[in-house]
């Protein structure tokens, strides 16, 4: 069966999914970092680690998601 690669809405959906996945991971890292900073009284250290960790996890997840879309 031929793939429909000319559909612009499919590309919009893929880009939106990737962006949302990265955003959610970064926001989760911010909340976790702020919580750990409050617990250990180490203001911006855990926040910075949470942001960078969330970005890294989000990018890795986005790569796996993109790989899945490319296989289809």
Describe this entry's structure for a reader.
By secondary structure, the chain is mostly helical. The protein has one domain. It has two helices and no strands. Helix 1 packs antiparallel against helix 2. It starts with 7 loop residues before the first helix and ends with a helix. 11% of the residues are buried. The model has no long low-confidence stretch (mean pLDDT 92). InterPro entries: ATPase_put. Keywords: Membrane, Transmembrane, Transmembrane helix.
Gist of the model:
Keywords: Membrane, Transmembrane, Transmembrane helix. The chain crosses the membrane at residues 12-33, 45-66. 83% of the residues lie in helices and 0% in strands.
Summed up, the helix count is: 2
Q: Count up the domains.
A: 1
Shape: elongated
Question: How would you characterize the largest beta sheet?
Answer: none
Fraction of residues in H or I helices: over 70%
Termini gap: 11 Å
The counted number of beta strands is 0
What proportion of the residues form beta strands (DSSP E)?
A: under 5%
Oligomer: single chain
Order of helices and strands: HH
Radius of gyration: 17 Å
Average pLDDT metric: 92
What structural class results from the helix and strand content? mainly alpha
